[in-house]
């Protein structure tokens, strides 16, 4: 297919064609399934949706190599057929952002999309083994491999994860996957106010109970454990003794998963007017900060390290913060332009970030204006 046709469709059919399109044009707004972009960017839409397929899947080695445009739903189904999963629990942002389409794995990696399990196992970038991408000069770059020990020198895999498409267009990723646990149980601790909830979550997370989720919503603390049933029963007994209060147990994926899916996808804020912020703060600061901001609603995730806030339109959450950082996930374009989507960086970090963007994309072809 010629370059002109690729530019017309906006969806190159191969990595080579993508490379030629980038060399010939720009600026571009990089898009996979179109379900995750939160920043403002300028340019012609350049989609990776045609770059699909599984290049390698070795269940025994817990390794998956897949093209960037492959649908997340297809990857999830493939892994489930081998009793495996992506450990970092990818959020579905469509309901919160009012988007259609289907998420692609390239968009997941580009945004470092991670859910409640990150508190124990890590984020998307922690499971990225390798990456192929096309930089702003139209050069194909490969970094990393199929196992952790293959990553040497500058770890571009981790750099690309969370770059929101500002450094290059991801064409393929290598991921470490994880076996599904034997079972899962969610503990519910009711009738907790915010400060009490943070204390409970911080205490339990600080113990060797291997929680894979800790959240507070609507006066209830949720604690998740995964693994072998006998081991979970022992840990639950210790948690009960430590809490010394009423605790409900929800055993099995059928009862537990809907709770964490709702928390992961911020379902509590769907179809409700207002702006949505994601904050990263010290758990010890969370309750006082929320009280100062006075949002319409709030969800505490990771024991309070991550906060989801629903606020009145145009609210400047950062004006109340003394430390931590805040991302404006959902708002009008006008509010995003006025307040900025991503937290302002220090002068030193901004110089480093600008230098990296210039090195990878010297002409500013990718997601211009996305991150400053």
TrEMBL record:
UniProt KW keywords: FAD, Flavoprotein
Pfam families: FAD_binding_4
GO molecular function: catalytic activity; FAD binding
Domain FAD-binding PCMH-type: 2-180
InterPro entries for this protein: FAD-bd_PCMH (IPR016166), FAD-bd_PCMH-like_sf (IPR036318), FAD-bd_PCMH_sub2 (IPR016169), FAD-linked_Oxase-like_C (IPR016164), Oxid_FAD_bind_N (IPR006094)
Taxonomy, superkingdom: Bacteria
Protein name (database record): Glycolate oxidase FAD binding subunit
């Amino acid at each position: 297919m010629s370059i002109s046709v690729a530019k017309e469709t906006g969806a190159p059919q191969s990595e080579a064609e993508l490379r030629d399109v980038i060399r010939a044009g720009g600026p571009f707004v990089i898009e996979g399934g179109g379900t995750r972009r939160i920043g403002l960017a300028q340019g012609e839409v350049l989609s990776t949706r045609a770059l699909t397929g599984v290049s390698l899947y070795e269940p025994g080695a817990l390794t998956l190599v897949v093209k960037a445009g492959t649908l997340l739903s297809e990857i999830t189904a493939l892994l489930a057929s081998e009793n495996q999963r992506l450990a970092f629990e990818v959020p579905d942002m469509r309901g919160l952002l009012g988007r259609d389409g289907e998420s692609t794995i390239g968009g997941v990696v580009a945004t470092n999309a991670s859910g409640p399990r990150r508190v124990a196992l890590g984020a998307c970038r922690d499971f990225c083994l390798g990456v192929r991408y096309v930089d702003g000069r139209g050069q194909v770059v490969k970094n990393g491999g199929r196992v952790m020990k293959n990553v040497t020198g500058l770890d571009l895999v981790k750099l690309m994860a969370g770059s929101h498409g500002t450094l290059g267009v991801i064409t393929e990723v290598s991921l470490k996957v994880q076996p599904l646990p034997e079972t899962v149980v969610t503990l519910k601790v009711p009738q907790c106010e915010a400060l009490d909830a943070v204390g409970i979550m911080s205490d339990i997370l600080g113990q060797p109970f291997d929680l894979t989720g800790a959240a507070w919503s609507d006066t209830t603390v949720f604690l998740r454990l995964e693994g072998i049933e006998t081991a979970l029963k022992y840990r639950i007994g210790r948690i009960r003794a430590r809490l010394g209060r009423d605790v409900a147990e929800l055993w099995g994926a059928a009862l537990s998963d809907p709770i964490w899916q709702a928390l992961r996808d911020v379902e509590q804020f769907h179809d409700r007017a207002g702006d949505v912020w994601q904050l990263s703060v010290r758990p010890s600061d969370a309750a006082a900060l929320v009280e100062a901001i006075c949002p319409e609603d709030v969800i505490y995730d990771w024991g309070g390290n991550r906060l989801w806030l629903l606020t009145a339109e145009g609210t400047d959450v950062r004006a109340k913060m003394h430390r931590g950082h805040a991302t404006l996930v959902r708002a009008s374009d006008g509010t995003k332009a006025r307040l900025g989507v991503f937290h302002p960086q220090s002068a030193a970090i901004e110089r480093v970030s600008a230098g990296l963007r210039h090195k990878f994309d010297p002409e500013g072809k990718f997601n211009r204006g996305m991150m400053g």
